[in-house]
């Protein structure tokens, strides 16, 4: 027993739960999945959804009953759906190197957003709209949170997460490299729909309760508000992100964007039933990202 425990007690590993979180981790060639705990039904479902690729070929698989898996989600009050995996962290991307290789970059910056569910849902929305990356303060990023992984529905496997020690200095450096910073706040004096988007952009969002820090807001080139969503902005940053990304990116993308807008809201995103809490967007209709089955 002790030998078995030592074999799997990897300090860099942690557990995630939920169908989409586990399946997308298995699909990601950059993600090391050490072992998975499945019910018989969830194993069949994995093969059914990926018939041309054996996602479990190089993974240690253990079969459990649903009751045996319940302990993995009890603390966070999460449903495991018959899927639990032990995984290792992905290699952290470096913002400085990333911006050297690309142009016309769009990043989302989170100033003080700390709730794991909100962060996961923001990652999910940003991935759906092909945002290039998310900037977040290192100590605010819950890198091993089951809540965050489940709320992202696997989208975290495809999003660049740039953890930084200081948001303000990061924004200053990006501004020096020709990035425009748009801060979203109720005190904004510029309407979102009147902004002429071009070049490199950063969409800056404040915390769920108090919005942007005063000092951070000074780094915004423009303070923007969307009249209809001022209240939502203060309640949940993620709930505002989706319609803003819709307005910002749809002119740049194909008409498939219409496939995204309906399902996103159809499952009750505003009230936390779909993107934030539930089991996902209407399956099979989201075609803007690799997470086509979230």
Characteristics:
single chain; 294 residues; alpha/beta; seven-stranded parallel sheet; four-stranded mixed sheet; 11 strands; 34% helix; elongated; disordered N terminus; disordered C terminus
What does this structure look like?
The protein is an alpha/beta fold. Helices cover 34% and strands 18% of the residues. The protein is built from twelve helices and eleven strands. A seven-stranded parallel beta sheet has the order 7-6-5-10-8-11-9, with helices on both faces. A four-stranded mixed beta sheet has the order 1-4-2-3. Helix 3 (40-49) links the parallel strand 2 and strand 3 (60-63). Helix 6 runs parallel beside helix 7 (146-152) and helix 6 packs parallel to helix 11. The longest helix is centred in the middle third of the chain and has 13 residues, at 116-128. The two termini are 38 Å apart.
């Amino acid at each position: 027993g002790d030998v078995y425990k030592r074999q799997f007690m990897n300090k860099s590993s942690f557990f995630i739960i939920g169908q989409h979180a586990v399946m997308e981790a298995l699909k990601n060639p950059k993600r090391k999945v050490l072992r998975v705990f499945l019910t018989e039904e969830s194993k069949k479902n994995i093969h059914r959804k990926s018939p041309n690729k054996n996602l479990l070929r190089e993974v240690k698989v253990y079969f459990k009953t649903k009751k045996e898996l319940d302990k993995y989600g009890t603390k966070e009050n999460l449903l495991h759906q018959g899927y639990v995996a032990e995984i290792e962290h992905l290699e952290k991307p470096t913002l400085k190197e990333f911006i050297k290789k690309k142009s016309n970059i769009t990043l989302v910056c989170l100033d003080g957003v700390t709730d794991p569910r909100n962060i996961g849902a923001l990652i999910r929305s940003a991935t759906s709209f092909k945002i290039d990356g998310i900037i977040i303060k290192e100590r605010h990023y819950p890198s091993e949170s089951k809540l965050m992984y489940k709320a992202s529905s696997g989208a975290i496997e495809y999003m660049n997460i740039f953890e930084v020690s200081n948001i303000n200095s990061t924004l200053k450096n990006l501004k020096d490299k020709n990035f425009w910073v748009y801060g979203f706040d109720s005190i904004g004096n510029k309407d979102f729909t009147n902004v002429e988007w071009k070049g490199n952009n950063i969409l800056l969002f404040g915390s769920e309760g108090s919005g942007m820090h005063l000092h951070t807001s000074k780094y915004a080139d423009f303070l923007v508000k969307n009249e209809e969503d001022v209240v939502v902005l203060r309640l949940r940053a993620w709930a505002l992100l989706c319609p803003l990304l819709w307005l910002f990116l749809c002119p740049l993308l194909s008409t498939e964007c219409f496939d995204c807008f309906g399902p996103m809201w159809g499952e009750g995103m505003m009230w936390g039933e779909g993107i934030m809490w539930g089991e996902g967007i209407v399956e099979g209709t989201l075609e803007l990202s690799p997470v086509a089955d979230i």
